[in-house]
Amino acid sequence: MQKSRVRRVGALIVGLSIVVAACGGDDDTATPEATTPEATTPEATTPEATTPEATTPEATTPEATTAPTGGGELEGLKGTTPKGADVSAWVPAVNDFWVAKGNDALTDFNYAAESYDAVIVMALAVEQAGTDGSAFAGEIVDITGGGEKCTSFAACLEIIKAGGDVDYDGISGPHDFNGNGEPLKGSYAVLQFGADNRLDDSLEYLIEAESPESEVVDLVPVTVDRAGDGVFKIGSLLPETGNLAFLGPPEFAGVEYAIDEVNAAGGVLGKPVEYSPGDSGDTSTDIASVTSDRLISEGVDAIIGAASSGVSLTVIEKITSAGVTMFSPANTSPALSTYDDKGLYFRNAPPDGLQGAIVANLILEDGNASVYIMNLDDSYGNGIANVINNVLTASGIEVLGVKAYDPAAATFDAEVAEVVAADPDAVVLISFQEGSRILRTMVEQGVGPTTRNFYGTDGNMGNATGEDFDAGN
User: How far apart are CA 432 and CA 411, in angstroms?
Assistant: First the structure.
C-alpha cells in the first residue's frame, strides 16, 4: 500500500475551507498550498467547511470483473461521490460477504457504506426507543450526534443498554444529522478516470465540508403513530433496474452486510432483523410505487431507499403516511430538505449544496475561465446544477450555458452541439446511466474529456460509466 499524505487547499471559495487527504506518493512531503480567487457567497445554501486534518488510509478495491478495453477517451474526467474517510478494511470485507452470497464481485462501491450505516442507525434508534413502531424515527437524529462516540452496532448497543447516549460515527462519515434528518457534514472522494476508461485509484483524495450554522433546524417531530410488533423489519427500495442500476449491487450489499452484523450481535429488541428487498426502477416506470405498496403490505417498519431523489419524491408521501420510516443512502436533492415528511424521512448522503460547491471548487482550482453545465432534467440534476452555477458565477467564472436534458431521449446530438458552439474551457455533466451515451457523443463531436476539462458527479463517477462507454451503451 502506498503512503498517504495530507494537503490543505487554500480558500477556494468564500466559506469553503477544505481539508484534502490525498492517497498515493512515495513520501510524506507536504504538497505546497494552493489558492484560487475568492468569491462572494452567492446565497445562503453555499456551505462552509471547518474540519480538522486527518490522514486517511488507502482503500483496497477488488479487481473489476470486466477487463478494460477503452482507448482512453474518458481519461481526465474528474468528479465527486460521497465517501467516508476510512474504508480500507471495510471495502474488501463487504465485497467478500457479497461474493460469498453467490453474487459477482463489486466493481463500484458508491453508497455501499451509506446503505450499511442506514441499517445501523435505524437499528440503534429502535433499541433506544424500545419499539419498532414509528416512534423510533424520533430517536434517529439523537443517535447520530451529541453523545458518547461509537463506531459499531455492538459497541453502541452496549452504551444504550447501560443507559447512555450514543453518537454513532459510521463507515460513510460522522453523520451529525440536522433536525430535518440529513447530515450537516459531508465527506467526498474526488475521483478521476485513467487511460483505461476506469477510475484511477492512485488519483483519489478526500474532501470534507460542513454546512454553516445558519442551516441548522429544530428536530422535526414524528406525526404518524404506527404501532410496532417487536420485530424490526426492513424493506429496500433500491435500483435493480433503470438508469441507476449500477448503484444497486453496492447498496444491496451494504444493507445485507449490516443486517448480518446486527443479527450476529443479537438482533434488535432481542430478535433477528427481517429483510425484504425490492426494486425501485427509475422515474420512467411505476416500479417504485408497486414495490412500496408491497413492502407496506408486508408490514415493514422502515424502507431503505430510494437511490434517486426523483424516485423518492414519487413515493415519499405514500411511505411516510403509512407511518413507515424512509431512509435513503443516496438522495441529495435540496427539494427533500424541507419536504413535509411527518418526521419519517432521513438521508445520510449530504445534500447537493455541499457537493455542488465542491465540484465548483474543483473547476476554480483548475483555472478554468468558462464552463458549460449539462444536467438531466429532474430534482437531482437541476438542484446540483443550480448550486454549481451560482458558485461559479459569483466567483467570476463565465457560465456559457446550463442545459437540462431529457434522460430518456433517443440521442443527445442537439444538446452536445450547443456545447460545441459555446466552446467552454470546462464541461460539467450531471447524469445517471445515460451519461455514457452523452460522453460518447461528446467525444465524437470533439468536446470530450481529452479536449476539455471535464467534471462529473456521484450519478456517473463509477466504473460502470467506463464499462458502458466501452460497450457503446
Answer: 15
